[in-house]
Design goal:
There is one protein chain. By secondary structure, the chain is mainly beta. The chain is built from seven helices and 56 strands. The strands form nine sheets. The chain has a 22-stranded antiparallel β-barrel. Strands 17, 18, 19, 20, 23 and 24 form a six-stranded antiparallel beta sheet that branches. The relative contact order is 0.13.
């Protein structure tokens, strides 16, 4: 949001903005006048600025100038986003703030590697294409207890932030971590203000055009400094609340499986999924700071930061997923690779005869509900001793971070017939899916829907960090060697994660002891018709609106599904209707739908569901600063040595399964096998940064440093699963006997507690031109070479399986494991960007300005592997998360009481994952009709397609203490696509399409 405020309050927060110079690098802060030019007189106007009228720079322009000044004075390559006078960052989430920074891009999905779940505000952040981005709060480490190393950016309340700094290169005194860089969230401190009582408040109300829910946002800050007999004492309190509601719609195609039809190979999709997801979060932020200066030389600080993030999501999805679909080529069209583009009918085929099957196509559908609660707290105590009569200064801090996450998800599945076939048209911008009139009639009949399965997932995670650091700096007078700085840090990070997997289990199905119930048996309120309203704004055709389990039912059992799977009342279903109980009518309220005999125990099975991780870090550094007071060449050189000890413990779960293998029926037992691991590493991280400033407007930088990333706790986990993949037994028919499925291969999915840290050798150059306040340009080439990247790869490895007859066997398994890449990855690119205000234009036009940046990045990552549609292993994928082209263009206007901007952010295609759920199955290819075929294991790469959004906002100053504004997000209603690779000729094909809200919000700002 763009805001204006009173000059008095502007002065106070402008002083707060001077803290943009990091404490870690110990540079001098700029003055308030440097940052805001709040009341520059004609005598003080720069030589290239027309004189005469008084120039008042406030609002977003003042914040932009503050960010430029921070960049110019920094010891390494950084970019900053600074809050305006009302204490507001320009966007409503940290990810949205970061996406406009040169060289930074965000992921519009729930997580990188999860291409099936869209995130409106974005989640992950890449700096110069790399996902290894360390999160900091006031220069200190912070995280969320989510199996990772960094904080979830969506958890952070932006209203509490004074600025966000993006470090693209490193110095020895920065905490280790971040092959891509570091992002430091800076909060406000009492002594940053002018000492008088200040209060600021903001309030907003927003709404999305699809979600249609009003969302409030509010924040209040108050601060004052007191002169007391024991010294100066400052206090500051900041609280914030925000709610955000969204609705996103999606269509997804299954992989295009190789299918032989009439002696020729084609690629035919295995089905589709479509649905929507309603999402809402409530974010609560609390921040408090106290500073005490008993003397002018000594300052003590204490801060408390809490971010609490509560979210719920509710999704409905309909799916057809089959490996036996075929088409009639005479009524279908294909591209040059033989990939299906359009057909009037996809039907099930009998692979024994290659003739159409007599069975209908079954569509699965699910109602999902998620309830999540994450809380992160940071407690920090710090001191700064800098006597004016001494060359020696000392700094130190103690920190504790506590984070916890509670996560509950439940999916309730049902089946309905889609008739003998369905049509699919993939020639346009969006897939078009059609069904027969008979199938449409069945959609309206509750008796056509069969309750089929439930699948819960629960997590209870908690993490803690304790750290301490001490830094000493000795400065020199009138010497090229300006200062020597040394320091040490020790930290212990622990996390205990409880997770019970995804226990899919059939509800009552007739064959498992409980009758097969239909939606005609649903208790009142347990099912609902769901209308996919204005789906993709009317731009696509869907089979129709369908019935699902209700949100009330899913919400009732999201944390404990025991009641859902209880058997219906005794005698409810006649014996003759065991496989279709529709004739019995509705159940009483509160009844279950059967299947309790197949579920695992509710909650967590200990210790099998527990994973423990610990990282102990010890680091020390030495850094020398050099340069002349009059300018010219300056910089720093140093080295940081880090010792890391990773330790993890957990259990491998063997999943129960009965199957036919080599003509024999075998059964795997459900069991847990203990596993653990410990590894220790010592790494040296040198850095050198050299600046050359021929004058105050030009700065040329060059740097070399080595940075590192620790693997996530998810990658290091000493847990996982062993199981078996099967193909269905054709002898199983509805109402018939239950025969074991046919064995395909063993499977394994685990972490690796012995993973090495990722190392990155970084070379940077930056050419910066600061023409005048608010006008700046930069050009920044860079090169990175990364070794030991963690790769989530599909491979083969030996595992031990235990059968229920007491025997065991060492077998080859198709393993999804984390490994360190055996080959180095390289990243090279260049950033170019700038900003200028057109002050030379006459009248109201002189408020116009523009800002633009573009980043080109090229990468190679031969250590990553995927398997194409033919099962061939390949290593030609780029680095995950990296777009070759990234661009931002913003039109600005700042003049007196009016401030507005229109911003376009765009990134080109990027790799999401080489091993995604849904695109990594084993399918069977039949070259000729018969009972057996060739099992082909695939792991197709999935890409996020090029995506851009247009946002805008305007702010109007009414008085010195009051302003109001409006903000627009995703004005054009952009569609995000994902693409599948691994097909002939390297061609990519549509995997999924997502569309979400256009959003408008209005707000006010008060300052006293």
């Amino acid at each position: 949001m763009i805001a204006l405020a009173s000059p008095a309050f502007a002065e106070g927060l402008a002083q707060a903005d001077t803290s943009a110079i990091p404490q870690a690098t110990g540079q001098a802060a700029t003055t308030a006048g440097d940052l805001t030019s709040t009341a520059t007189t004609a005598d003080q106007v720069p030589a290239d600025q027309p004189s005469g009228d008084e120039i008042v720079v406030t609002g977003r322009r003042a914040a932009l100038q503050a960010a430029d000044e921070r960049k110019r004075r920094s010891e390494t390559i950084i970019d900053s986003v600074v809050a305006d006078e009302a204490g507001k960052l320009p966007d409503n989430s940290i990810t949205e703030v970061l996406q406009r920074v040169s060289g930074v891009s965000i992921v519009r999905f729930a997580a990188l590697g999860d291409p099936d779940h869209f995130s409106v505000q974005g989640s992950g952040v890449q700096v110069r294409g790399l996902t290894g981005v360390a999160s900091r709060l006031n220069g200190r480490e912070i995280f969320s207890a989510n199996n990772g190393r960094a904080i979830l950016w969506s958890d952070v309340t932006p209203e509490l932030m004074a600025a966000v700094d993006v470090y693209k290169a490193s110095t020895a005194d920065l905490i280790e971590g971040g092959t891509g860089g570091q992002i430091d969230l800076r909060t406000k401190m009492p002594f940053d203000f002018n000492g008088k009582f200040h209060m600021a408040a903001t309030g907003e109300l927003g709404m999305g055009d699809m979600a249609q829910k009003a969302d409030p946002v509010a924040s209040v800050l108050a601060t004052k400094t007191f002169d007391t007999p024991i010294g100066k004492i400052g206090v500051l309190a900041d609280v914030a609340y925000s709610q955000f509601s969204s609705l996103s719609q999606f269509i997804r195609t299954e992989p295009y499986f190789k299918t032989n039809i009439s002696g020729k190979d084609y690629y035919v999709p295995g089905g589709f999924t479509y649905g929507d997801e309603a999402f809402q979060y409530r974010r609560y932020g609390i921040y408090g700071a106290v500073q005490w200066a008993p003397t002018d030389d000594l300052t003590f600080s204490g801060t408390f930061f809490q971010s609490r993030y509560k979210s719920q999501s509710s999704d409905y999805g309909a799916q057809v997923s089959s490996q036996t679909l075929a088409v009639d080529p005479a009524s279908s069209s294909f591209d040059s690779n033989g990939v299906l583009t359009k057909t009037s009918s996809l039907f099930n085929r009998d692979n024994n005869t290659f003739l159409p099957s007599a069975s209908n196509i079954t569509s699965s559908g699910n109602k999902g509900f998620v309830d999540s609660n994450t809380r992160t707290r940071d407690y920090s105590l710090a001191f700064n001793y800098a006597p004016t009569d001494s060359h020696l200064s000392l700094k130190g801090a103690l920190q504790r971070v506590d984070s916890r996450q509670i996560y509950d998800r439940l999916d309730i599945f049902r089946d309905v017939s889609f008739g003998t076939g369905f049509g699919m048209d993939l020639t346009g911008d969006l897939p078009q899916i059609t069904t027969t009139a008979a199938a449409q009639a069945g959609f309206a009949n509750p008796a056509s829907y069969f309750w089929s399965a439930s699948m819960p997932h629960n997590e209870r995670n908690k993490g803690r960090l304790d750290s301490a650091n001490l830094d000493a700096e000795y400065s020199f007078d009138d010497s090229f060697l300006k200062a020597i700085k040394v320091g040490a840090r020790a930290a212990e990070r622990t996390e205990r994660d409880l997770g019970n997997g995804y226990n899919w289990s059939a509800l009552g199905r007739g064959w498992n002891g409980d009758p097969q119930l239909t939606y005609a048996n649903a208790a009142p309120g347990d099912t609902t018709y769901h209308a996919f309203k204005d789906f993709f704004r009317g731009e696509t055709v869907l089979p129709g609106n369908l019935m699902f389990a209700s949100e009330d039912l899913a919400k009732r059992y999201v944390a404990n599904r025991t009641g859902l799977v209880a058997s219906p009342p005794a005698g409810f279903c006649p014996a003759a209707a065991q496989f279709d109980c529709s004739v019995a009518g509705p159940l009483p309220a509160g009844s279950g739908y059967g299947g309790a005999s197949g579920i695992r125990p509710v909650g967590f099975v200990l210790p099998g569901d527990q994973v423990d991780n610990k990282t102990i870090t010890k680091a020390a550094y030495a850094l020398a600063r050099f340069g002349r007071p009059e300018g010219g060449i300056s910089g720093n050189v140093g080295v940081r040595v880090v010792n890391i000890q990773n330790e993890g413990s957990g259990y491998i779960q063997q999943n129960a399964n009965t199957f036919i293998r080599n003509g024999q029926t075998q059964t795997l037992g459900q069991t847990f096998l203990a596993r653990g691991g410990k590894a220790e590493f010592t790494r040296w991280l040198p850095s050198i940064n050299v600046d050359y400033a021929p004058n105050e407007k030009i700065k040329i930088r060059g740097g070399y440093n080595i940075t590192m990333d620790l693997p996530t706790f998810n990658a290091l986990r000493a847990s996982g699963s062993i199981g078996v993949a099967t193909t269905s037994n054709p002898g199983n028919v509805n109402g018939g006997s239950s025969l074991p499925n046919f064995f395909t291969n063993f499977t394994a999915d685990t972490g690796n507690p012995l993973l090495k840290p990722t190392m990155s050798n970084n070379f940077d150059i930056s050419l910066e031109y600061y023409a005048r306040p608010g006008t700046a340009f930069h050009l920044a080439p860079f090169y990175k070479r990364l070794t030991d990247l963690p790769i989530y790869s599909l491979t083969q490895r030996q595992v031990t399986v235990v059968f229920t007859d007491g025997t065991s066997e060492n077998v080859n398994a198709a393993a999804t494991d984390y490994i360190n890449a055996t080959k180095a990855a390289t990243v090279k690119g260049v950033e170019v960007g700038g900003r200028a205000f057109l002050d030379m234009l006459p009248g109201v036009l002189s408020g116009l300005g523009f800002e633009a940046n573009y980043t080109f990045i090229d990468s190679k990552n031969p250590g990553d592997l995927y398997r194409d549609i033919n099962g061939v292993t390949r290593n030609d994928a780029p680095l995950i998360g990296l777009s070759k082209h990234n661009a931002n263009v913003t039109l600005l206007y700042e003049k007196q009481a009016v401030s507005f901007r229109v911003a376009y952010s765009w990134r080109s295609r990027y790799l999401q994952t080489t091993n995604s759920n849904g695109t990594n199955p084993t399918y069977t290819y039949y070259a000729t009709p018969g009972p057996t075929g060739q099992a082909i294991q695939i792991a197709l790469p999935v890409y996020g397609d090029a995506y851009g959004t247009v946002d805008g906002g305007a702010r109007f100053k009414v008085t010195d203490n009051f302003s109001f504004g409006v903000q627009f997000t995703n004005i054009l209603g952009a569609t995000q696509r994902t693409l599948m690779g691994g097909y002939p000729g390297g061609k990519l094909y549509g995997r999924s399409w997502f569309q979400s809200d256009r959003r408008i919000s209005t707000g006010i700002s008060l300052a006293f």
